[in-house]
Amino acid sequence: MVSRVIPVEAFDLVIFGGTGDLARRKILPGLFRRFCAGQMPAESRIVGAARSQMDGAKYREFVAEAIAEFGGKVASDAEKLAAFLQQLDYVPIDARGVGGWEELADKVKGRKFVRAFYFSVAPGLFGDLAERLHHYGLSDKASRIVVEKPFGRDLATAQTLNASLAEHFNEDQIYRIDHYLGKETVQNLMAVRFGNMLFEPLWNSQYVDHIQITVAETVGVGTRGEYYDKSGAMRDMVQNHLMQLLCLIAMEPPAKFEPGAVRDEKLKVIRALDPVEPHHIVRGQYLSDDEDPSYREGVNDPRSKTESYVAMKVGISNWRWAGTPFYLRTGKKLAERASEITVVFKELNHSIFDDDEGGHRNVLSIRLQPNEGITLGVTIKEPGPGGMRLIDVPLDMSFAEALGDAGGDPPDAYERLIMDVIRGNQTLFMRGDEVEAAWEWTDPIINGWTERGDVPKSYESGSDGPGDAATMLARDGRSWRAIKT
Ligand code: NAP
After folding, report:
1. Buried b (16+ CB within 10 A) or exposed e, 432-453
2. For labelling alongside 135, which of 1, 105, 295, 432 has CA 20 to 30 A away?
């Protein structure tokens, strides 16, 4: 099946931080793939902006190299690449200075296209950029801004950040990106829930025993040790990515799939989250292995109390979910790189099969990476003449297999989200009040650790995390799904 490409109108996209890691690895290669898919009309223009002094020609060389490295299958199409590069330009600019701004304004003002400014820079510069865009007359209704995580490090900083953007831009001009929401499977989660009669009637505490959300990485902190140690798994992953997944799994059906309705429902979930008891959280730090130093060595602080792993039991106090725990976990240097949401349904309340030992449950697994897809575990009769013995088998839908391969690379989350910015569709972006509500729930947890002097448990690199996480579920008579790809 060849996926349908929906045209977008012409646009001007300015990438502040256009020479940075994110622009090089994700944004620019993603835009090239959209160009190849016919989603970048000829009048569109991409302007890189950063302090580095270079001209348009030099920037095009830089972008060509980035695409060669990270562009995927389409990167070898020299003709398309040359045409794409024609639409690129560069302006040296300091977010905190004055040089370059007039030039940028001249380049984009007066053009009647959608205008988007991607803030792919440190969050400390967001306020400066918003202020200067306004000063140079670039914050009018035609303009949209895209901001990257981390969106604050607690409620107070998130509020300050929101306020600094709100001074010059309306909420409907602000696109807070969480690339997890751009993943095919995450959007499919909503299609599965709200596009089928099958699941929604069972999607509540009467039928769902518990839900697990796992985001496991095999890498350590690498060269980001200093940054990561100020953040930790709770701020870096739970407050944003896992929280967003939790919202999509738990929210009520919105009346329409449109930004206001979807984001209202997500916000209600965050506001219904119970505070988390200290004994319902396990924190960990990985030990060294043959490849990498330990977490503490990696961040160069032998006494660091920052977690590289966190697991927790979360309750949602509303009619749908009271009594069904949500178990979340995320960590670095774990056994596999795997992100998965698993909905474990309750056991049958009565079995009619005498030969069967029972214990069967339907399990719906939504894999975000790798091998995006959905598996539904169902119970069937064991083949053969052995009587009515039951076995559990997976009904597996790998998206790559089910939807075929159109010959190119499947669109990356960033590509989808950038196209949504151009279309003006905010459904998959976080609203300011959502971000603040998420911090409001997260802050007491992190503050509690600091006040109690909580020290994370050590865990072996390449394992499933600290043993205490397994014990936490065992206390509830449950177990984690194995982390596997
Ligand atoms: P990076 O590699 O350090 O790049 C930062 C960019 O900002 C560079 O282009 C830099 O270029 C520019 N810059 C720095 N100071 C500037 C100033 N005063 N005025 C104008 N431009 C300035 O960072 P990154 O990894 O690309 O990350 C960018 C943002 O995305 C950060 O907020 C980060 O947290 C977020 N993010 C990144 C990733 C990722 O995978 N990299 C993932 C999620 C979120 P010059 O030095 O030439 O000015």
Report:
1. bebbbbbbbbbbebbeebeeee
2. 432
Active site residue 241: yes
Q: Bridge-partner residues for 287, per DSSP? A: none
| Portions of the chain given CATH number 3.40.50.720 | 11-148
Distance 174 CA to ligand 1 centre (A): 19
Task: Return the amino acid letter for 344.
Answer: V
28, 60, 61, 65, 78 from 82: Cα distances, Å:
14, 9, 11, 12, 6
- Determine the Cα–Cα distance for residues 238 and 151; give it in Å rounded to an integer: 13
N residues, the chain: 485
* CA pseudo-torsion sign 38, 374, 199, 474: negative
Q: Which residues line ligand 1 (CB under 6 A)?
A: 16-23, 50-52, 93-96, 120-123, 125, 148-150
Index of the ligand 1 atom closest to the CA of residue 51: 48
In the CATH scheme, what is the code of domain 181-410+431-474? Answer: 3.30.360.10
**CATH 3.30.360.10-classified regions of the chain:** 181-410+431-474
Task: Find the catalytic residue in 168, 179, 241, 280.
Answer: 241
If the chain, 485 residues long, is cut into consecutive pieces of 10 residues, what is the mean pLDDT of each piece?
73 97 96 93 96 97 96 89 97 95 92 94 95 95 93 96 97 96 88 92 97 97 94 97 97 95 98 97 97 96 97 98 98 96 93 83 91 89 85 81 57 91 95 98 97 97 96 97 79
Q: Does residue 279 sit in helix, strand or coil? A: helix
Predicted TM-score (pTM) of this structure: 0.94
- Residues forming beta bridges with residue 430, ordered by sequence position: 176
